[in-house]
Inverse folding.
């Protein structure tokens, strides 16, 4: 059985191969694509690969006694966990992942994984 991450990667590669954009942001070059997530805002009802990254990053932050299902759909549970994370760190807890919340979820930036996919490296930290 193929894992979700491998399935998504295969679908993205296929879309790229046939000339379809993997991102729904209209980003056309590699630099834009690498920062498309952190330069966008996501909320309840959002879908796509950036939401996968948000869910993985929220899971990495260890909020709640369970892990979010990483399905690319920003639903009620994703919103609730984003709000818990925002509240725990003194942020406005609105459940919206915009510039401030991206900085929060990207704090544990590493050279691989969803942090790279989401464009965490592009955030100006200072």
């Amino acid at each position: 059985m193929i894992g979700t991450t491998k399935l998504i990667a295969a679908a993205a590669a296929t879309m790229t191969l046939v000339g379809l954009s993997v991102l729904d942001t209209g980003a056309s070059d590699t630099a834009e694509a690498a920062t498309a997530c952190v330069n966008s805002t996501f909320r309840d009802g959002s879908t796509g690969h950036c939401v996968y990254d948000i869910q993985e990053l929220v899971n990495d932050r260890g909020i709640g006694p369970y892990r979010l299902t990483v399905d690319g759909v920003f639903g009620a549970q994703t919103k609730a966990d984003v709000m818990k994370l925002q509240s725990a760190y003194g942020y406005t807890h609105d459940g919206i992942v915009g510039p401030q919340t991206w900085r929060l979820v990207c704090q544990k930036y590493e050279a691989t994984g969803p942090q790279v996919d989401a464009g965490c490296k592009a955030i100006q930290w200072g």
Observations:
- The first helix runs from residue 4 to 17.
- Helices lie at 4-17, 30-35, 49-60, 76-88, 99-105, 114-118.
